[in-house]
Amino acid sequence: MIEEKLDKKFINIVNEIKNEIKTTQIKVAIEANKNLINLYFKIGKILNDNYKYGNKFIDDVSRELKLEFPNIEGFSVRNLKYMKKFYLEYKEDELVQRTVAQLPWRHNIVLMSKIKDNKIRKLYAEATIKNGWSKDMLVIQIENNYHLRIGNSSNNFKTSLPNINSDLANNTIKDPYIFDFLTLKENYKEKELEKAMIERIRDVLVELGKGFSFVGNQYKISTENNDYFIDLLFYHLDLRCYIVIELKTTEFKPEYIGQLSFYVTAVNETLKKETDNQTIGLLLCKNKDRLTAKWSLKSTNVPIGISSFDLNKYVSKEVLEKLPTDEELNLHIDINE
């Protein structure tokens, strides 16, 4: 028993040291990135201030830097031109400059290449920092107009949530959601949509945004005589509340509000703890009439957001039925092995 206690204590000590090392590694990496971005900003300023030396000036600088620092990457002609552009873009805007300094250089190149407005760049920079987007994910979000979708849902958060939570809730929910990683036949049913989302739940969580934690699908809520099943149930770590998601493959209808309001109330009554904030409902419809949604939301004091969604990937029923099943694929692999 004594040896076991010593072993557990030793493991705890080692784990504490490991956590300190990992924390320090992260801090060092973040600081190193900031220093690199600041270096590129200073180089960009020097290049801009001395660009009068002609068209081959940057070519000559690139050659000299490569000779002096052969083991350091980043001094190509193209990259030096990006440094010059980086300085010109942010020299008058220290706030944006400080924000983008927290991003890797490749992310900054994407922002400079794809977005002209500094305010919109700042929005994407902040979203990247918050959500931990990779460079490729940043590109996808820009192409899918993240800045137009965030905070664009129809909702009643202003009147149904405390002020401290309403803005955060509004800026958490998008409209529309882009689930272009799902492949479904045309005229798919709600159960098929739900099944596809569960199978690609990691991608769904990325699109929903940081903070969403999956609790379950077809989550059962029971009364004395009846059982009810919630399509998707999440818990949001920043909002500190449950989020009930109902899926509708049709255009929004006012009667959907009543059903979702009931589910939200049921979660409040059965799952919500004193430390949790009020549960929020999110209705995902194929499309919606905004005025109909606005009027419908006035009929309830339950916090609800209504968003549409896009799939963009459809496969005809005939093609889908001809695709091999997972079992058939596994059988094919076994035979070949």
Distance between the termini: 49 Å
Average pLDDT: 87
Q: How many β-strands, per DSSP?
A: 9
- What's the domain count? 2
Classification by helices and strands: alpha/beta
What is the overall shape?
A: elongated
The value of Rg in angstroms is 26 Å
Helix content: 55-70%
Q: What is the CATH T-level topology of the largest domain? A: Trna Endonuclease, Chain: A, domain 1
The description of the largest β-sheet is: 7 strands, mixed
What fraction of residues sit in β-strands? 15-25%
Based on the structure given, which CATH architecture of the largest domain is correct?
3-Layer(aba) Sandwich
> What would CATH call the class of the largest domain?
Alpha Beta
Order of helices and strands: HHHHHHHHEHHEEHHEEEHEHEEHH
Distinct helical segment count: 16
Q: pLDDT under 50 segments (min length 5)?
A: 313-317, 322-337
